[in-house]
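Review form for a predicted model. The reviewer records the input and the model, then writes brief findings.
Reviewer: anonymous (R2)
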Amino acid sequence: MPFKAYYLSPEGDLKCDLDEEQVRAAFESKQGVLWVDIVETTEEDGEFLERTLNFHHLAVEDCVSPRIHAPKIDDFGDYLFIIVHGINYTVESDIVETTELAIFLGTHFVVSNHNLPLYCTESVGRLVEDDGRPLRHGADFLAHALIDALVDNVLPTIDNMIEFADEIEEEVIRQPQQSTLEEILKLKRSTLRIHRVMAPQREVLNRLSRGEFPIVKERALIFYRDIYDHVVRIEDLNQMIRERGDSALATYLSSVANRQNEVMKVLSIVATIFLPLALLAGIFGMNFAYMPELGWRWSYFVVLGFMGAVIVGAIYWFWARGWIAARRRKVARFRPFAVERQKLVRYLGHLAKRPHL
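Model under review:
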């Protein structure tokens, strides 16, 4: 049963690497602050949580089960059972993967449970081992430190997704390909996965920050409100990325349709040019015995000249109608907020003559 346990006694003494018996004694004393961090929860860990620490079997079942559970908070009177989600950085995937952290929060203890290594527990564990600072303010502040680090670790992924969205938009405009469509779909799936966990997690943090539970002291509420603000910001950024993905998808489909239209236009022009030539070749290719043109000395060159005139005439007609162009038309450069002063309401022309303006 791999776990790490830290205990800060009422006298301020810090103990690390407690065994099972020491954890039981510290838990039953109901003094000081105890933190137990369990990784890769097994059935044995579930029995330890249920029998030794007297946690409800439904909460323990959520810890042991390998399935992903939605963020939630359950009040069992003496303790809170909280499930929050973060980013899974242990796997390399083209689509964002999430992982969960389960927390049992009591007045004098915090038991964290996760099936995958998390940077948030490692960073808080190092702070505890250095000077015990996260434990000295109480169990509610320790739970805050864990959740805060977990949520803050989502922001680097959001930043990468924003940069990825920028690259996709440039690729869609410059040269859309089949791989571009695949990248757009990966981005949309990633935003959907983040939305699935951040939307309910927002409500969990809202409940923790408004003083609904006596276990969370009033002095800690402002810190939980700070985490709530971070979750709201992450959700807003994720929604913005999702909208950019939708816009990139629409632009991609429009670009592909325009490209197909350009190809069809070229093929139509070529077919239109050669259609009268095929008619002339068909007429003079007939094997009738009495065709006066066959006996003319210059008939071959006359027909070739007529064909050339047809080609030139057709190209000129297409050019006159704007179907083909020798060069691209330049669009006037748009300068935001650059307007003529005379068009401004109540424009004072004499102010522009002052040297300091």
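Findings: The first strand starts at residue 3 and ends at 8.
Further findings: The mean pLDDT is 82.
Recommendation: see findings above.
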